[in-house]
Design a protein that fits this description.
There is one protein chain. The protein has about 450 residues and is α+β, with helices and mostly antiparallel strands. The chain has two domains: about 10-170 and about 325-390, Periplasmic binding protein-like II (D-Maltodextrin-Binding Protein, domain 2, 3-Layer(aba) Sandwich), CATH 3.40.190.10; about 170-320 and about 400-435, 3-Layer(aba) Sandwich (D-Maltodextrin-Binding Protein, domain 2), CATH 3.40.190. It is built from 17 helices and 15 strands. The protein has helices at about 10-20, 70-85, 100-110, 125-130, 140-145, 150-155, 185-200, 215-225, 250-265, 280-285, 295-305, 340-350, 355-360, 370-375, 380-390, 400-415, 420-435; strands at about 25-35, 40-45, 65-70, 90-95, 115-120, 155, 160, 165-170, 170-175, 235, 240-245, 290, 305-310, 325-330, 395. Strands 1, 2, 3, 4, 5, 8, 14 and 15 form an eight-stranded mixed β-sheet that branches. A three-stranded antiparallel β-sheet has the order 12-9-13. A two-stranded antiparallel sheet has the order 6-7. The termini are far apart.
């Protein structure tokens, strides 16, 4: 099938209107676009829990079915109208409000799933383990169209398992009235923040979420851990991870955890700061520095605080910080009824810049396509700054064991920030992680 690009430019202009007209909810909504480009009704089916039966509306012969969340569903519905019109097919976009990954796996196992699904890259290990998605062929020329971390994020077992369209990572927010110059090192940040605290201008040295349960800690502490010499898993040349080379117990990782403990003792890291109050501390100007991602940008802009986003600091004697990189992707379902059409949509239509730009307009994140990122970064300083902060980043591991690993990792960080011995705590954590990974 030879795809045509007519209609894409016009499509980008109406994405915002489509999203505004499709409010979020707790139901599963379906909307089909035929070759004539018209919506053929909007109904709803009650969403179910992860343990329940997946929603009705799996793929059928002659219709390409796409599952997406409330945010991207309306956007991909509008975008796919061009594909439907130009290729004489029907595209049925269904928005799943809750537990999209779990519902997709359940539906896949029951043979009632879609042809394509949109979701985060760290789903890949679980989806592959459950036989729910197919690899996607991608030539070196096509790979070169994307930012390198985007391709690395969708690489699993030496195969490509998704088409990335957006990236995200954390960076350093700075109140420019309180701290005009971006700190190059954690030591410099500590000096500036301590002076501001002494002068009574801030109450917290740094807003970085640790939490009492450690839930957000591993993700947000990763750039500190890596700058201090820490390594979790060794990366393969293609960016994937070797679970047999788990380095949490190495001396470099122990040294990094020691630095994290020192930051806790100095008040830079606190368990009282979590995901629920980190942004408020910055927007209320109780902290001049915040480590967070683009998801908190709307709150910062709305607050009126003068700010800049910049690279994460490193230690004076350390290496560059390496935050975790997340990617949003389109997956081809392994048990869809229109697999050839789904592959065609993914590999020839979805990678077009107009589609990537339309999805960016819905949720501003650094686009995975290099050309679209360059276009956006030329006029949006925040997107450019987040992109630059992620240049040295590492994809968040998509291995299926990550959910089980994050819990003890977070709890170990809570203990170390609270004063526990870094060496013993890190060694115990390494033993726990090796057990989860099945390493002897």
């Amino acid at each position: 099938m030879q795809l045509r690009k007519t209609g894409l430019a016009a499509m980008a202009g109406v994405i915002a209107l489509a999203v505004a007209a499709c409010g979020g909810g707790s139901s599963t909504t379906t909307s089909s676009t035929s070759a004539a480009g018209s919506a053929t009704g909007s109904g709803s089916v009650a969403a179910t829990s992860a343990a329940g039966t997946a929603p009705a509306g799996g793929s059928t012969e002659g219709t390409l079915t796409i599952w997406a969340d409330d945010l991207y569903g309306p956007a991909i519905k509008t975008a796919s109208a061009a594909f439907a019109t130009d290729n004489g097919v029907t595209v049925d976009v269904q928005t799943i409000s809750k537990d999209l990954q779990a519902q997709f796996v359940t539906a896949s196992q029951a043979g009632t799933g879609p042809d394509l699904v949109m979701g985060a890259h760290d789903w890949i290990g679980n989806l592959v383990q459950n036989g729910a998605i197919d690899p996607i062929p991608m030539t070196d020329a096509t790979k070169a169209l994307f930012q390198k971390p985007a391709v690395q994020a969708v690489t699993f077992n030496s195969q490509i398992y998704g088409i990335p369209f957006a990236l995200e990572n954390i960076a350093l927010y700075r109140n420019t009235d309180l701290a005009p110059t971006a700190p190059a090192t954690w030591e410099e940040l500590q000096t500036t923040a301590t002076q501001l605290q002494t002068e009574g201008k801030v109450s917290e040295l740094l807003a970085l979420p640790i939490g009492t349960d450690g839930g957000p800690a591993p993700y947000h502490v990763q750039p500190i851990f890596t700058s201090g010499g820490g390594v979790f898993l060794v990366q393969n040349p293609d960016g994937s991870y070797d679970t047999k080379q788990m380095e949490m117990g190495s001396q470099g990782s122990i040294d990094a955890m020691t630095k994290i403990g020192q930051m806790g003792a100095a008040g830079l890291l606190k368990t009282s700061i979590g995901a629920d109050n980190v942004a408020t501390l910055f927007t209320d100007q109780k902290a001049a520095f915040m480590v967070s991602g683009p998801w908190n940008l709307p709150a910062v802009v709305k607050s009126g605080v003068k700010y800049e986003v910049s690279d994460l600091p490193k230690f004076a004697d350390g290496t560059d910080a390496q935050p975790f990189i997340g990617a949003q992707n389109l997956y081809v379902a392994a048990k869809g009824k229109n697999k050839a059409l789904a592959q065609e949509f993914a590999t020839n239509f979805f990678i077009q810049p107009e589609v990537a730009k339309a999805l960016y307009d819905v949720q501003p994140r650094p686009p995975a396509l290099q050309s679209v990122y360059d276009e956006v970064a030329a006029t949006n300083k925040d997107i450019k700054a987040f992109g630059e902060a992620g240049v040295n980043g590492q994809p968040l591991p998509s291995i299926p064991q990550m959910a089980a690993i994050f819990d003890p990792w977070g709890k170990a960080l809570v203990s170390i920030v609270g004063g526990a011995d870094p060496t013993t705590t890190t060694q115990q954590l390494a033993t726990t992680i090796n057990g989860i990974l099945g390493n002897s």
